[in-house]
Design a protein that fits this description.
Elements lengths: L2 H14 L4 H11 L1 H4 L9 H18 L3 H17 L8 H14 L5 H16 L2
Bound molecules: protoporphyrin IX containing FE.
Length: 128
């Protein structure tokens, strides 16, 4: 895993936008409108906030080879079946993050960054 390339994209994205959460969920719900209704109880955005924080922690953990991140992903898959998240759609959250960071990085997004994120997303997809 090319951790340096991933960390570089996160840094570029955070320089371009201090709080990417609204952009990430806008992109997620733009691509998967049916998922937005699952958050009907999340009136203050607290769930979406802690969910995104968990996703960031998982990414940072995977870059360091942490087993905890792998556990959080597999536990999260099971938990989200109970929330009504269709099978196979759990991972689109990470793709929405990647796509948002790609947009925020603009011309700073390299082929190396694209390949590094593709590796990370396939590693996440392989964790059942
Ligand atoms: C598109 C994919 C996803 C959808 C639609 C989704 C949807 C939801 C919903 C609706 C809840 C609230 C459930 C409730 O309290 O009734 C929730 C909670 C949560 N989700 Fe996701 N989720 C997704 C992906 C993920 C991913 C990838 C993670 C990372 C492990 C994650 C972590 C969490 C956590 C930690 C909570 C609990 C937050 C809290 O109660 O404060 N979610 N999710």
């Amino acid at each position: 895993m090319n951790s340096a390339a991933i960390l570089d994209t996160l840094e570029r994205a955070s320089e371009a936008c201090a709080d990417p959460a609204p952009l990430i969920y806008q992109r997620l719900f733009g691509a998967y409108p049916h998922l937005e209704s699952l958050f009907v109880m999340d009136r203050d955005g607290g769930v979406r906030g802690s969910m995104l924080e968990t996703c960031f922690n998982i990414i940072f953990g995977l870059l360091k080879g942490s087993e905890t991140s792998r556990f959080l992903i597999s536990a999260g898959r099971m938990q989200h079946e109970g929330y009504g998240v269709p099978d196979g759609e759990f991972d689109v959250m990470f793709a929405a993050m990647r796509d948002t960071f790609r947009e925020l990085s603009g011309s700073g997004w390299t082929l190396e960054a694209e390949a590094a994120w593709a590796d990370l997303l396939s590693e996440i997809a392989a964790i059942k």
